[in-house]
Automatic annotation (TrEMBL):
It comes from the Bacteria. Belongs to the small heat shock protein (HSP20) family. Coiled coil: none annotated. InterPro entries: A-crystallin/Hsp20_dom (IPR002068), HSP20-like_chaperone (IPR008978). Residues 37-136 form the SHSP domain. This is SHSP domain-containing protein.
Length: 136
């Protein structure tokens, strides 16, 4: 158990925090690609709303341009894949803090039961909005 005012315990806790941060950065930036496609190294959050015959999927993609987004389907799911590139400022100097995920991402979004047809899509205010309609 850590003692609140013990400097050794405080240093140990700080060292553990730094190790955890280094591991997160390692996982985010140093995954090796497999085959012709590089491996995704993060997943964006997504919401799914269903109302009768319609479904709306919202995927948070701030900083990703629409022309870089790929959408694919499989029975029972949609895949969203793209890349968020580091901003130019991050390539010129030392990075002092990095919390926003960058690099290739991929997200598999399970769909509700049934057959769905992908309709209009838009990238608005940093969110990809996919509209689906129940087939049949």
């Amino acid at each position: 158990m850590y003692r609140k005012h013990d400097p050794v315990d405080g240093m140990w806790a700080h060292a553990l925090d730094l190790m955890a941060q280094a591991e997160r950065m390692h996982q985010q930036f140093f995954r090796l690609g497999t085959g012709a496609r590089a491996q995704a190294n993060w997943e964006p959050p997504a919401d799914v709303f269903v109302d009768g015959r319609d479904a709306v999927i919202v995927v948070a993609l701030p900083g990703v341009s629409a022309d870089r987004v790929e959408i694919a389907s499989e029975p029972g799911a949609l895949w969203v894949r793209a890349e968020r590139e580091l901003p130019p400022a991050a390539r010129r100097g030392a990075i002092r803090q990095l919390e926003i995920p960058y690099g290739i991402f991929e997200r598999r979004i399970p769909l509700p039961e049934g057959l769905w047809e992908l309709g209009p899509q838009e990238l608005s205010h940093g969110c990809l909005v996919l509209r689906l309609r129940r087939a049949g």
